[in-house]
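ok so I'm stuck.
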Amino acid sequence: MNPSRCRILAVGKVRRSWIQDGIELYRKRLPGLEIIEIRDSTPDKEADSIRASLRPNEHVIALMEEGDAVGSIPFARRLDQLGNQRLAFVIGGADGLTNELKGRAHWQLSLSPMTFPHELARLMLIEQLFRAQAILQGSPYHRA
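replied:
not stuck anymore, here's the structure
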């Protein structure tokens, strides 16, 4: 997994400082990872902004409650199988993603069957990206 080939497209701003601190901690550990903030709006306007931000060659991974729930090791393996593809992780707003965006995704992923604030989902995703990299590199960060 190459962080410089990954982008996170997330609706809304991170307002809680402790979440922002966590995101920055992992961003430093994942040089090249790009986070694009999409302005909060209606689901259709958010979808328009997300579509406009997606690149044609990106493998789209939509984060959604009803997506596939996988553990950290299978997540790392799946990212490894994607090789050098460019990845776009998409986190919707409070109302989630439109059906069109869900259908466009190459993979629908759930971080948990529980519901979390979207800014916390962003922190959880970036930590899992770092963990996936650590797993693939054999780092002691991940202790199963």
